[in-house]
Design goal:
Blueprint: E1 6-12, H1 18-29, E2 37-42, H2 46-55, E3 60-63, H3 70-80, E4 85-90, E5 93-95, H4 99-104, E6 112-122, E7 157-158, E8 166-170, H5 171-176, H6 195-206, E9 211-223, H7 231-252, H8 254-257, H9 259-285, H10 289-324
Parallel strand pairs: 1-2, 1-4, 2-3, 6-9
Antiparallel strand pairs: 4-8, 5-9, 6-8, 7-9
Helix pairs in contact: 7-10, 9-10
Length: about 325
């Protein structure tokens, strides 16, 4: 196999996702472009690690000694990975057969620092719930409308940051900037985030000439749990995202930390709200009460997600000022 050696990393913390984890590993085994190694990092769960060592015999299993959370587990992967390129996929996602080849191809350009792919949601009922219009699919860790033009199927494009469910890095540059910030990101089921955005911004600040790109041809199918498709999770995740954005802005500066979010808030979300209200009104006039109700729920979700995110951001900023005092 020509080209750089690749380590594929899966981080896991719970046995509740065991069937998903087994499926994720199988999808990596079946890639058109083989990985040099599959590395499973278990975050503070000895029982899960022991089970994986017995069942997943061709997978290198490592237990994370670092700070509990996804960032610590990813940094443990950097400690052990042998590949020139380190690729990350979630434990509840399955990669399509050409995913790895698509994520590795852009590294032929020596200026490429990181490459991300798309994450397509697999809904519990087979279709997206009303509470999650496509502009809000980031809430369940998937690619969303307005994320970037690449999400509509265009070619490889430069982006500010990649998404954690489907991303890769040159290991050397990622290690050089200190890896992922362990005081950021998801811890167990606590839906914090922005650690991928943080590390991508730090990479670009260190290497202004470097490229971080997204290839829409590199696709994973991301299972969405039934506990993530209701109003409660929407509000918790949005609030946590706001808090995380406040931390991010403090770490890397608001100009870099919020550069993409401004257009999303000022253009994408208002467009989604207008669409849902317009379609809902048409459905109501046409006597389609069910469709009108669905559109109304989607419009309410856009408003509530924005409000909860803004409230979380303000809470993060105010909390920081109080601690400083």
């Amino acid at each position: 196999m020509t080209g750089p050696a690749v380590s594929v990393v899966i981080c896991a913390y719970t046995e509740r996702r065991w069937p998903d984890l087994v499926a994720a590993v199988a999808s990596i085994r079946e890639q058109d472009r083989p990985a040099a190694e599959i590395l499973l990092v278990v975050d503070h769960n000895p029982s899960l690690a022991a089970r994986a060592r017995v069942v997943l015999s061709d997978v290198a299993v490592r237990e994370s000694p670092r700070r509990r959370g996804l960032s610590g587990a990813r940094n443990t992967a950097l400690d052990h990975a042998t590949g020139d390129i380190v690729v990350f996929i979630d434990d509840d996602a399955c990669a399509r057969p050409d995913w790895l080849a698509q994520l590795v191809a852009p590294y032929a350009d020596p200026s490429t620092l990181a490459v991300g792919g798309l994450a397509v949601p697999r809904w519990p009922s087979g279709e997206a719930p009303a509470v999650l219009p496509p502009e809000l699919w980031w809430i369940v860790g998937c690619s969303f409308t307005g994320q970037h033009p690449a999400s509509t199927g265009e070619g490889v494009v430069d982006v500010r940051n990649v998404m954690g469910c489907s991303m890769s890095f040159r290991r050397s540059v990622l290690v050089a900037v200190g890896g992922f910030a362990e005081d950021m990101g998801r811890v167990g089921a606590t839906p914090l985030g922005c650690e991928e955005t943080d590390v991508c911004i730090r990479l670009r600040q260190r290497h202004p000439e470097g490229r971080i790109v997204l290839t829409p041809a590199g696709v994973v199918d991301h299972r969405v749990g039934a506990d993530r498709v209701g109003w409660g999770y929407l509000l918790r995740r949005s609030w946590s995202e706001g808090v995380s954005k406040a931390v991010l802005a403090r770490r890397v500066g608001a100009a870099d930390g919020l550069s993409t979010e401004r257009s999303y808030v000022l253009e994408v979300l208002p467009g989604a709200l207008r669409r849902e209200l317009r379609c809902g009104a048409r459905a109501w006039i046409g006597g389609q009460a069910s469709e009108a109700g669905r559109r109304g729920s989607a419009a309410a979700a856009v408003v509530l997600a924005l409000a909860a995110t803004a409230a979380g951001y303000l809470r993060g900023r105010v909390g920081r000022r109080r601690r400083s005092r």
